Amino acid sequence: MESLRRLFVSSLAPLSASSLPDDDEEGGRLESLAMTTRPPFPLLALPNEIIQQVLGHLRPLELVELSLTCHSLRSHAVNDLLWAKFVQENLPVPQSSPLPCHTWRELYTAHYPYWFLPRHKIWFADKATVGNGLAGQLVFARYDSRLGSIEAYRLVAEIGRDHKAELWEWNPSVLIHKFNPKIRLFLDNPVIKLNLGDLSATRRLHQEVLMQREADQRLHGIRSMLFLSRAIPSELQDSTVSLWPPSIVPATNRVRNESPTMFKGEGHKPQRADQICETNFRLRKWSEFRSQGGRSSVRMGEDVLTFSTLPSDCYTPNAEKPYQGIWVGDYASHGCEFLLLTQRTPQEIQEQDLIVPGSPSTYLYGDYDHTEDHSDGQVTTIEAEDPPGCSGRLEAIKLTGDPHVPRGEHTWIAEDIGKGGLIRVADERNFKGARIVKSWSHIAASGFRDDRYIRSQLILISHDSLAMYWEDFGHVSFYTRVNIDDYLDLES
Fold first, then answer.
1. Which has the closest alpha carbon to 245: 146, 340, 327, 172?
2. How many angstroms from the chain centroid is the CA of residue 337?
3. How far apart are CA 407 and CA 218, in angstroms?
């Protein structure tokens, strides 16, 4: 790869001045002769097939720069097969044609630099609506080939009407509420809708793109504008800087989460292409009220929502980490909330990770003090070794929150889901065969005040279903895995 780049750069090196004749007594004839007899660029001397292979290692902006050098290289740089690759690598589902655009190059250019939206697919925000900084929202981005548009919709979940309850055989004083959530994309109101032609021909790095233009015909409504962000260098990230996402959420980059200028300054937006943060973006939202004739309007309640994505390796399950992923949980009167479950193997756990934030370390080591027993003499199960995939630490982080524990905070932590944290293997009908391990659950007063961790028991029903026994509340809640691919299909 690097050798091909060096070949490319050297082939475009201009002829040095020393190679031209100094004697101009015959006017420009000698210079003209030197120019016409100059050997061609080494790159152009190669067969067309080899040139295309070399250009296949260049990125879009490099191809654009190459096309400005000469007509011959431009004819190679605009080859549509090269540009088809740039579109396809950003889409989870390959497209068969660039329609409704005429060429792949035209399609890629129409949505540059926002192709990272469907590539990363999953985005979560610091706010649900203007001014609501606790709930957050989870959106899925995808490309609609029918319209040639990039769209993003909120993922919502409802508990469902069949919310039946039963008594827990192991502890009849505890009521178990069944959980069968109805999950869907809220298609009535897109969070993002980038149509062909929405982006200006210039100033794309600084442009704030107006969303939901179909709402412009109404007298009033919520307006929003999409714009890019710049990442904060890791050396500047400390406790004095408000960042999104929070430090407990896995992230490639983080951006500022507060700005007295509402992120209108140049320092908050990329000035060059290499400054674009492709793991974060922002939406400026406000309420707009128009007069009956539409000639005047009033703009109120402006706020900025900051979105971030998640590294795919932290939510994609595998044989070693079968529980990690995007989940939805039952939070009683607060409704359904979406979570990120991360699983760390014992080898990945570092010393600084072993303490629950804001909790005494004795909560986790030798002082769990599990005294509750409804087993009629049943002895706690002892395992010789961890079952496959049941080892290490499991963390549940809220992607959407509620007035008590907001988004971006732990909702529970199981320090060891292996033999070290095992309480028992359930023998009762409700959870027969499920491993039950020690865990700590996060609670707080309204407004996230006086937060603390309380003892709980995590019930590992399957790799797609979990339950939590909140001991202090006498309540069992359920968690179900979200199948991400179900919501990237346009037919869903």
1. 340
2. 17
3. 33
How many whole angstroms separate alpha carbon 492 and alpha carbon 484?
11
Give burial (CB, 10 Å; 0-12/13-18/19+) of 191: buried
Q: Is 17 helix (H, G, I), strand (E, B) or coil?
A: helix
Residue 125: strand pairing partners = 137, 307
Instruction: Let me know if 442 is exposed, middle or buried by CB neighbors in 10 A (0-12, 13-18, 19+).
Output: buried
Q: What is the DSSP letter of 474?
A: T
Contact predicate 128/400, CB 8 Å: yes
Q: Which of 310, 304, 309 is nearest to 223 (CA)?
A: 304
Residue 452, strand partner residues: 443
Name the residue among 444, 420, 282 with its Cα closest to residue 346. 420
Q: What is the pLDDT of residues 113-162, one digit of tens each?
A: 999 999 999 999 998 875 567 889 999 999 999 999 999 999 999 987 66
Please, what is the Cα angle at 25 between 21 and 27, to 5 degrees?
80
DSSP state of 14: P
Two tokens at 337? 């909330």
CB 413 within 8 A of CB 421: no
Q: Is 187 exposed, middle or buried (0-12, 13-18, 19+ CB in 10 A)?
A: exposed
Residue 14: cis peptide before it, omega within 30 degrees of 0: no
Q: Summarize pLDDT for 314-351 with one digit per residue, the tens.
A: 999 999 999 999 999 999 889 999 999 999 988 887 64
**Tokens 């079952």, residue?**
387
Q: Which of 248, 182, 176, 179 is nearest to 457 (CA)?
A: 176
- Is the CB of residue 327 less than 8 Å from the CB of residue 479? yes
pLDDT at position 20 is 35
Q: Token pair for residue 403?
A: 């007035």
Classify 121 as helix, strand or coil.
Answer: coil
Residue 410 near residue 458 (C-beta atoms within 8 A): no
Residues near 302 by beta carbon (within 8 Å), at least 6 away in sequence? 130, 262, 284, 285, 286
What is the pTM for the complete model shown? 0.85
Half-sphere exposure of 84 (CA within 13 A, CB side): 11
Cβ pair 279, 309 in contact under 8 A: yes
- HEC string of 66-116 equals HHCCCHHHHHHHCCHHHHHHHHHCCCCCCCCCCCCCCCHHHHHHHHCCCCH
Buried b (16+ CB within 10 A) or exposed e, 406-439: bbbbbbbbbbbbbbebbbbbbeeebbeebbbbbb
Query: 489: part of which helix (H) or strand (E)?
Result: none
